[in-house]
Write a structure and sequence with these properties.
Helices cover 41% and strands 23% of the residues. The protein is α/β, with parallel strands linked by helices. The chain has a 7-stranded mixed beta sheet with strand order 3-2-1-4-5-6-7, with helices on both faces. Helix 1 runs parallel beside helix 7 and helix 6 packs across helix 7. It binds glycinamide ribonucleotide. The site of glycinamide ribonucleotide has 18 residues, from helix 1, strand 5, helix 6 and helix 7.
């Protein structure tokens, strides 16, 4: 059984989907939720779903405290689900090929530092793009630059606001992220 950690900074809808997916898929289990924002919704979700959670700040992340916690929990795979910090190089190296991220746009467009959540959707709308989508990719030492595992497009509709576009993108994320993570779990479990 592959032990999965999720790192998240936000409301945690993707984290909740992943947790529930692996409650009926015995190949993996979400054993830890790490969060860098006190009061983030994902902490409440972890509590409600009975998954151990761990709160840390940027200094702890830089000093290897998170890395030690992931080791302590025996985590084989790290899933970033709305995690807004750059992952330090030594942690990326520890989990090379075993750390995955989801981005709410079709990378390489609208990626990089500061490009997250509604900032991305606002930029897509301001550019007048007629499509957006999701990118699921392995994590390397740069923001949003690792090897793509899956991209799924969706239309940008006339009258879309950041909220309506975000909701369409979230639906895609909830459908595809557990599937892609399950494929990685399958590869790691062999
Ligand atoms: C998701 O849309 C995810 O793609 C995005 O944050 C949202 C988190 O939602 N991630 C980024 O923008 C990373 N650059 P959630 O907290 O409801 O899962």
């Amino acid at each position: 059984m592959v032990r999965i950690a999720i790192l998240a900074s936000g409301t945690g809808t993707n984290a909740a989907r992943l947790i529930s997916h692996f409650r009926s898929d015995a190949r993996g289990e979400v054993v830890l939720i790490g969060c860098d924002r006190p009061g983030a919704g994902v902490m409440q979700r972890a509590w409600d779903l009975g998954v151990p959670s761990y709160l840390f700040n940027g200094t702890m992340l830089q000093r290897g405290v998170v890395q030690a916690e992931l080791r302590r929990f025996g985590c084989d795979l790290v899933v970033l689900a709305g995690f807004l910090r750059l992952v330090p190089s030594d942690l990326v190296r520890d989990y090379a090929g075993r750390m995955v991220n989801i981005h709410p746009a079709l990378l390489p467009k609208y990626g990089g530092k500061g490009m997250y959540g509604d900032h991305v959707h606002r930029a897509v709308l301001a550019a007048g793009d007629t499509k957006s989508g999701i990118t699921i990719h392995l994590v390397d030492e740069e923001y949003d630059e690792g090897r793509h595992l899956l991209q799924v497009p969706c239309p940008v509709l006339p009258g879309d606001t950041p909220a309506t576009l975000a909701s369409r993108i979230h639906e895609l994320e909830h459908e595809h992220y557990p599937q892609v993570v399950a494929q990685l779990v399958d590869q790691l479990g062999r």
